[in-house]
């Protein structure tokens, strides 16, 4: 099929230039190579396309019909090329974003809401899942992820957007009902509300902000969930202590609906980042989307 398409292009060039030698110069190949392409094409189609003489060439009736088809093919190829350039250089087509349900609802939509409204020719697909998905298989343009560290990969580019602290919080109701928490070791007498998607979700690694003393505490668990929003609701209703990102609890902390527990001890920080396929020419729609996300997260306090 590709050989046929190549031969059709050569044939069209011969007709447009009026000679085999002119087509050869235009295409940067030898005259004999041009002749071979036409012989192969005529043999496969079992017809003569060109009348040849020492002075000029002319189209046969079949050649005239075939030339029109070749012109249509070349025009379609040019339209396809223009479309590819538009997709790369303009905010049109489809943009596919992968994230978690919590990040999607609490941050990605607020970050991109005005941007999406401003670019009506762009179709945006947001795939929210609690598990990492294959970017290539799902044709994902941008994946928003969070991790204590970024694992480098030759196939992908990583775009850090924010460093985010974790905090321990509880509702005033819970803290008033149970024993005081003055030291990390006191946590073993309290209930942790974990998000089960985290590794070792019942274990806390704590570092004192001044002395750098480190402790590892394993907390009891009575109620657990796989959703950050559900976990925060359980915490607000006094069911235990939650480990949560500061940016997801900042409002409730400022309103004193949640109280930070052990503020002198820190949990490991996370990096919030976007991941894209590594390519020489990144489409403008991906670049502009990354810019909008970076602007949003640069204005959020990642830590207290």
TrEMBL record:
Keyword RNA-binding: no
Keywords, ordered alphabetically: DNA-binding, Transcription, Transcription regulation
TM region(s), chain numbering: none
Keyword Transcription: yes
Gene Ontology molecular functions: DNA-binding transcription factor activity; sequence-specific DNA binding
Family matches, as InterPro entries: LysR-type_TF_proteobact-type, LysR_HTH_N, LysR_subst-bd, WH-like_DNA-bd_sf, WH_DNA-bd_sf
Database matches in PROSITE patterns: HTH_LYSR
GO biological process: DNA-templated transcription
Pfam families in alphabetical order: HTH_1, LysR_substrate
Residues in HTH lysR-type domain copies: 3-60
CDD domains: PBP2_CrgA_like
UniProt cross-references to SUPFAM superfamilies, sorted A to Z: Periplasmic binding protein-like II, Winged helix' DNA-binding domain
Annotated family: Belongs to the LysR transcriptional regulatory family.
Protein name (database record): LysR family transcriptional regulator
Organism: Acinetobacter qingfengensis
């Amino acid at each position: 099929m590709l050989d046929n398409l190549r031969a059709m292009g050569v044939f069209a060039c011969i007709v447009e230039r009026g000679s085999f030698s002119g087509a050869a110069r235009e295409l940067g190949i030898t005259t004999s190579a041009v002749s071979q392409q036409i012989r192969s094409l005529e043999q496969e189609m079992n017809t003569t396309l060109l009348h040849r003489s020492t002075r000029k060439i002319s189209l046969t009736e079949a050649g005239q019909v075939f030339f029109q088809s070749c012109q249509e093919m070349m025009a379609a190829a040019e339209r396809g090329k223009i479309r590819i350039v538009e997709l790369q250089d303009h905010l049109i087509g489809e943009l596919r974003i992968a994230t978690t349900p919590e990040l999607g609802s609490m941050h990605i939509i607020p970050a991109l809401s005005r941007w999406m409204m401003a670019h009506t020719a762009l179709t945006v697909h947001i795939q929210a899942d609690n598990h990492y998905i294959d970017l290539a298989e799902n044709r994902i343009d941008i994946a928003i992820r969070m991790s204590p560290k970024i694992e480098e990969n030759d196939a992908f580019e990583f775009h850090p957007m924010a460093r985010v602290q974790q905090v321990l919080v509880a509702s005033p109701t819970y803290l008033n009902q149970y024993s005081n928490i003055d030291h990390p070791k006191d946590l073993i007498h309290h209930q942790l509300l974990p998000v089960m998607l985290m590794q070792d979700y019942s274990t806390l690694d704590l570092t004192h902000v001044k002395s750098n003393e480190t402790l590892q505490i394993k907390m009891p668990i009575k109620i657990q969930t796989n959703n950050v929003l559900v976990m925060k609701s359980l915490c607000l209703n006094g069911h235990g202590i939650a480990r949560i990102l500061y940016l997801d609890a900042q409002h409730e902390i400022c309103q004193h609906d949640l109280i930070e527990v052990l503020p002198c001890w820190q949990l490991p920080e996370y990096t919030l980042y976007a991941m894209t396929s590594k390519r020489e020419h990144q489409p403008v729609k991906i670049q502009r989307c990354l810019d909008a996300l970076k602007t949003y997260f640069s204005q959020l306090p990642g830590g207290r």
